[in-house]
Amino acid sequence: MLTVIGILVGILVFGIKSGIGCGFSNISTRVILAVGGSYFLLALLFGSVIDKINLEAFEKFYSMGMGIHIFVSLLLIMTGIYTQKKWNSGKDVSRHTFLAISIPCPVCLAALAASCLLLSESLNLSGIKVGFLIGFAFFISVVASSFVFRFGKVRFGKTPETMGSAMMLIGFYYLLGALLIPAYIQTKSMNLVSTAAGETEIIPLMALGVIVFAGFFLERIRRHDL
């Protein structure tokens, strides 16, 4: 049951991530539905082949994907800066730059595959059924959050500049994860019991440092000092 709840929370998080881009950019409803539909179709695809993939193979693939993780984080940061700069100079590029945060990226694809694999093992369902359930949940999460953010944009007078800020913050979050996850996995594999407390105390400090730096960085951009 906890596994299912964790999967649903993960789907909600990635759906909100895509919804930020769709909701704060100036795109049509048809495009929003197409983005949600892409997640649904990919989930069906993963579900159809999930019976041929084991957990060890997936973990090995994920461990090799940290470089892609870092690339996605830097792409989000740079695209967010570009979106804000163009908006402040009188040009709206959100119809194009929203793709960096809304379309299924390698991190989202890994989350889709992991969700299908874990749910299949937890509920003993066929791959197609699991893919349908995961895809439907992703579709609802993406579309619903997109319209919620679009309503907030109209209600509170937000602009694509808000999307740029969100992209940079998510990029910093991805970058933080790419830096901390390998260290955590290495610590667990080495069973460093005696030093575990000291190392786990460093993690919140690193997270705080990244958040402070991100806030300072975004404030400089807002003041056009960069």
TrEMBL record:
It comes from the Archaea. Signal peptide: none annotated. Keywords: Membrane, Transmembrane, Transmembrane helix. The chain crosses the membrane at residues 6-24, 31-50, 62-84, 96-120, 132-151, 163-182, 202-218. Pfam families: DUF2162 (PF09930). InterPro entries: UCP037409_transporter. This is Predicted transporter. It comes from Methanosarcina thermophila.
